[in-house]
Structures
1.
Amino acid sequence: MISAFTGTQIRAAEQPLLDAGEGAVLMQRAAYGLANAVVRELRSEGRRLYGSSVTVLAGKGNNGGDGLFAAATLARRGMRTTAVLTAGSAHPDALAAFRAAGGRVHVLDEDNAEELAVLIAGDDVVIDAILGTGARGGLRGSAAELVAALEELRPGLVVACDTPSGVDADTGEVHWPVLTARLTVAFGGIKAGLMADPGEGCAGRVILVPIGIEENLPAPALRRFSAPDLAAVLPDPGRRAQKYTRGVLGVVAGSGRYTGAAAICVQAASAAGTGMVRYLGPEVVARQVLARTPEAIWEPAEPGRVQAWLLGPGLDGVERLQRARDVLASASSAGQPAVVDAGALELLPERCPPNWILTPHAGELAALLGRGEVRVTREDVESRTVHFARLAAEHTGAVVLLKGATTVVASPSGTVFSQSDGNPWMSTAGSGDVLGGIVGALAAAYAESGLDDHGPFAALGIAPDERWAAVAAVGASIHGMAGSAASRGGPLTASGIARAVPDVFRFLGEYRAG
Ligand SMILES: NC(=O)C1=CN([C@@H]2O[C@H](COP(=O)(O)OP(=O)(O)OC[C@H]3O[C@@H](n4cnc5c(N)ncnc54)[C@H](OP(=O)(O)O)[C@@H]3O)[C@@H](O)[C@H]2O)[C@@H](O)CC1
Ligand SMILES: Nc1ncnc2c1ncn2[C@@H]1O[C@H](COP(=O)(O)OP(=O)(O)O)[C@@H](O)[C@H]1O
Ligand SMILES: [K+]
């Protein structure tokens, strides 16, 4: 698992070493890692170090110290180096080292921000070391002006020191302006704000430089499944598997108006390895569902046994909504997991069971919170994704999967997962229905087994009260990977994402085997 931590957690992990007088050693390790990352990045672009230029934007704290020490190393290796001190003063030892290595220093003031921005934009590399985990709020005054001007000028390779200045390291909230980084070099632990939107969008690729505090780190604030973890947890039918042990998913979706949503989510659930899909809906929709997925079973009356439910995609009309309400009530009393999307989100009881997974986008989450008297807009949710996903999980008692470029999953216990495996082509109609089908299929597969203490989630150290959130995160990741496979850099359709799902399972299966 990829782990991420709050600034407070990282600082607490640093404290014993600071108390032991090792602060300078930590900073040297960070600076060395940062300088090496810049060198590797330049070389990977086929550029020579000697004669290339770098400017470090250095704030007055330790983040600026890291940046100045790193720039001193780069100066010694032949780069033309400049420092812009954004707060007048800087870490004394780091500044001395930088000057001793031959670096040039400018001090940002009220009048020279635009002029400096033009100079810096001509450099090959810009290191953003203005603010790190000690930041309170965003950039202000001349530093804000400089960064805003520089961002407009589209500078060369921007490397953020520990975190892009202006991104809240804990939450991913962004205080504009921010210099969008191509690479962020994080020290000791990745900051949680680099794995949640909108912060993740400013961080570029994130690499971790260990600095010797790792043993002191507590349980992470946020986790992400990577390919080996997915391979380890994916349902793997045993030799004597049969369709009922693989998981049966009941689907309440679609209406005369939105037939496609039902067809797509059933197709996706089938593609994601469910043993059987039972479709509950009107005949006119069922015809389309079966035309696309003849393997599905249409249940016009009381359905046969199911292990999990998916409700909501394309749901509309009084009669259909009442059916969904009845199914939710029986799922609740039977203890069955349910994936609740779109139209069914407004049918939720005040408290949901912890094995229900709600899959709103930002607008739907704002509406959901509004029912609990939290008045927020879609934009509010988009700017504080982790905060509002957690709040909704706390209020509803269910797992909340908030869809987006980065999808955040909050469990009612407070745990947060985040996945970012897709691409912007996936923002297309029906894409969310595919996600619903995938998560529904996984919920059915894991309902019978897999989530107990002998299952693969336990083996990854995921606590019992985090496991349904983990299932949702696995679904989000498979959805993103299928989107990437379907897109290969070009447009895609939701059906194309669904068709690519078996390839993702195959890829991960080979990963497991090899
Ligand atoms: N601890 C360690 O040994 C290690 C730490 N490491 C590194 O240190 C970083 C944390 O360093 P840090 O704690 O010095 O804080 P940092 O992020 O540089 O900035 C805070 C400074 O800026 C100021 N300031 C605050 N907000 C502001 C704003 N909005 N706009 C303008 N100014 C603002 C604030 O001053 P104040 O306003 O409080 O007077 C303070 O002086 C961490 O991210 C990592 O890179 C690594 O080297 C490993 C070892
Ligand atoms: N920019 C993006 N990058 C990656 N994935 C995205 C992006 N925008 C949307 N998605 C994904 O596409 C899906 C869209 O779902 P949703 O908003 O419910 O659309 P619809 O209702 O049209 O199906 C979500 O799973 C979301 O995570
Ligand atoms: K920074």
2.
Amino acid sequence: MTLDVPTLFVVVTAVTLLMSFWICLMAWGQPRGHELWPLALSLVAYASSNVLFSLRQLLPEIVAVAAGNLAYSGSLSLMLVAIRRFQRGPVGRWQVTLPIVLVFVLLSPLMPSEEASSVSINILCAGQMVLLLSALYDRRYPIEGRGRIILFSTYSGMTGVLLLRAYAVYSGLIGVGTAAGGARWLALVFVLAMCAVLSIALGFVYMTMERAERLNYEMAMKDMLTGLANRRAISEDLAHAVARAQRHGALLSVLLIDIDHFKRVNDDYGHPAGDAVLRSVAQALRERLRAQDLVGRFGGEEFLVVLPDTGLEGALVLAEALRGDVERTPAPWGAHHIAVTISVGVRGGRVGGADTRESLVAAADAAMYRAKEGGRNRVEHTAAGILTEVRTAIQAG
Ligand SMILES: Nc1nc2c(ncn2[C@@H]2O[C@H](COP(=O)(O)OP(=O)(O)OP(=O)(O)O)[C@@H](O)[C@H]2O)c(=O)[nH]1
């Protein structure tokens, strides 16, 4: 197989610019702060570095080498900006600018030899790769999914190549300059560069796609006002909990919680204040519940709590604790503190073979209405035995 270096050079540059163009198209219509803009620019900088290195014969050598190295280091800095923007994290200014300044220093007459410059610049760029790798795994701004794996593998490979090159120059295996290692080395560099460009573009596209999928899922399953599971999600959770309890003959309790006289809050303080109260009640529920318990917003001012492996007695204790927490925690609203109470209907005990999520919710609902009728700010319950009557009533119509 013959790998023709000029052809490879043209292919790599064309593919890089084409990728940059498609990424610009993806970013079109997004704000200037979107991560795909610096990524597209980074690819342009990388293509420019290749072009500048190839102009060594036409331009004064020092100008071509300096500009080529600056463009290469700049492309890595821009990639760091892209990752940080993706994470919505702060961009460390020195991490972006210092390497570019160092390229100037390392190419200056301060360096003892051309070899020393070349080795140091390769190590510097490997250091920039390490910054990219550590950004990908920054625990404060986690990135999930396969896109990160693609980027991690690519940056690791590139770090290895840069360090290998530094070692090869240091030990005299290859000379200084892009072409110094001979046509084979150069062909290998171009092939690896093309793999890297394609992988980086694909990695970013994956990350963006996976984030959009996660967001869609959250919007489909989360209540945006309170951050709790929405009706669909908590209903699905309850169906799974019922099936599991039936399989294992386990205990399962359900609480239906309704804020008392909530309409008055909206009427007296306005709808946004009502929203603040909903958030505050949701927070109070979240704080009290254990990790295995499930909670969701079931309707306007109604919440559903599912308590796996919990009998009636335990559910009543928890319901009473939640009632007290909400009563003692008024929602701050401007200069006011809006106090509300809740009525709780509890269905607790074992789950029979004929039970369904609907029958469990209906039982908790019946108990909750008794709590309303009994004067509100109360907990009422339906034990598992009484459920048979509720089920019969549902089936009857
Ligand atoms: N602010 C706000 N209000 C909501 C939301 N969803 C439903 N509501 C309001 O919740 C109120 C429910 O009122 P009602 O069903 O009469 O119940 P209530 O006033 O709590 O009375 P009881 O349940 O009998 O104690 C209505 O005014 C709805 O407009 C919401 O997302 N935000």
